[in-house]
Amino acid sequence: MKGWLVSSVVVNHEVGLHARPSVKLTKLAKGFYCNIEIAGTLTGPWFNAKSIVKVMAVKAGQGTILHLRAKGGDADAALLALSTFVSQDDDGDTSDAAGG
Q1: Residue 22 lies in a domain
Q2: Helices 75-87 and 19-30, interaxial angle, to 10°?
Q3: pLDDT, tens digit, for every residue of 17-39?
Q4: Which one of 18, 24, 54, 71 is the catalytic residue?
């Protein structure tokens, strides 16, 4: 098995990774089989991205550089999906957009 793949991304959501975006990030992470961790610095501490309590412990506000790492068969896809989610300026909820 390959080692950890690492990605860094700026948190663009206006409230950062607070409750609602953290829940969505955790649900997204749980959709992958690989191990996924997040941290506020490259030196850690690293937290399990599949745990809402751990994700919220990072306390990543808007403008924070969030570091993601993944190890396992679908690590590349996981990092791409999570980095895309974190870099959005909203939490991915489009139910209010265009009357939807």
Answers
A1: yes
A2: 160
A3: 888 899 999 999 999 999 999 99
A4: 18
